[in-house]
Give the backbone structure.
Amino acid sequence: MTKKSSKAKNKAITPNPKKKYVLNVEWIYFGLALFIFVLAFIIRIYAFNTPVLSDEATYSILGEKAFKGERMFVDFYEMKPPLLYYCYGFGTMIFGWSAWGLRMLGFFLVFINSVLIAFIAKKFSSISFAFLIGSISFFLANNIYSYGTETVSEHFVTLFTLLGYWFLISPKFKKLSINLMLAGFLIAGGALIKQTAALFGAGALIFLIIQSLNNSEPYLKKEGLKNILFLGLGAMMMIFLCLLPIMVQGSFEEARYWLIEFPSKYTNMISFDESFIYLKSYFGRILKYQLFSLLLLFLSILLLAFNWRKKYFSLLVILLVATLINVIPGYRFYGQYWIPFLSILPLSLLALKNTLENIKKNQSFLFITPLLIFIAFSGDLFQNSSSYFAENYLLNSERAHSGNFVGALYAMTDNLKPRMLPSDKFAILGTETQAYLALDKFPSQKHIYPKLIGRISDKNKIYQQEAYNEFIEQQNDYVIFSVQGTAWRGIADFDDWLYNTLFFEVINNYEPIWVFNLDERKFYSAENGEKVDLYKKNQLISFKKR
């Protein structure tokens, strides 16, 4: 054997320590990702017992109405854009108009969103680390205080936004113009579910400008204006498709009121000082519930300052800023407003990983990232194990929706079910529209959510009279009445013509069955002779027709 061949043989069998080391850490990422994914999946199975709440119930009803051919903003209404109704209608068509169907729809949305986060992360990292980032996004969606276990509209917004940005940064077709049109089409879809999501469209525009100025492939500087036009063309196509039914149905004026005029008044209802109370209440509880993992992710955001040269820097900053601004309108900072932010937040781990890998003193720094993630998520699991794996998620919902009739309403509907015949008519007078799903009674009336028309205006006076007439004409056999100011005007008072008129109509023509006093947290059985005061505030009352 010659010396040359001997050297070649020795070179072939010499192990490469560096390659072996990287392989080990990638397997650790994969194993940790699998652990978190399985954990999040099991938690989600338990969360199927989350009772349906008002927003998701209302949107599912409106979605059903849209798919039945009723006219948007004429036969039914809300202050959300048209695509919201079609999304819920399509989802309930697939999974069914039921509590189980809504939970399946929510699970599907959260899972797909976590997959999209992993796909985006894959553009800037290894497959195993991208899988880890997606698993963490899936885990964060189980925060009960962001209402992530409920099927709220923000899950749809996140879906359209992430899918749009994936086309924006990950060319799937040979022609960039097709990618940009698809990106614009999908990102505009998010804005046609919730108006404030238009910020993601502005973010996509800024991203294109930055890439063009840097002459980054494939966004060449000389093609910059054309790229922006293709993005805008895709957005206009989505807008046209969503406005077409409104124009055909002749409901443009009603749509203008609910989509522009009404929201502009609604967002000015909360003072700047009150907003801090809302911020502390909602975000404070979200942070506390998943404290360790969120603190690690916020640390990772700070480390973005050391990664400003990375390809993902501008994209991640744009997404984080856009999602944070999205929680501000109205100054309410509701829990569900944080869902897009929590979905995108795990991408910040790219900065943590790259910062630690750039420390060349010792290769053991490579293991710090998975170790920190394991410690953080183990801490969250230990802290909230009784909540994550609760047999009765009703208790979690009552914690997350304090001050609402969550448990009492379902106890009341369980009491009514054996009494009701399939032909019996039912109405919930208040905002607890989930009672319709609980009793499998689809509402035929136009006005199902009185809070939207509670405040006095010329338009709302007409709607209030319509709502009263609907109730009289329907001749309901059973009624649940919410004696709570916030269910009628959104504020804790009862200076409301519709509330007062319907209340006296009900107590004069219906007999009380059960009364739940929220302040006392106590039920009273009126039909069994227990003394009840129907005029007390903060009560939920079930009635049957005399």
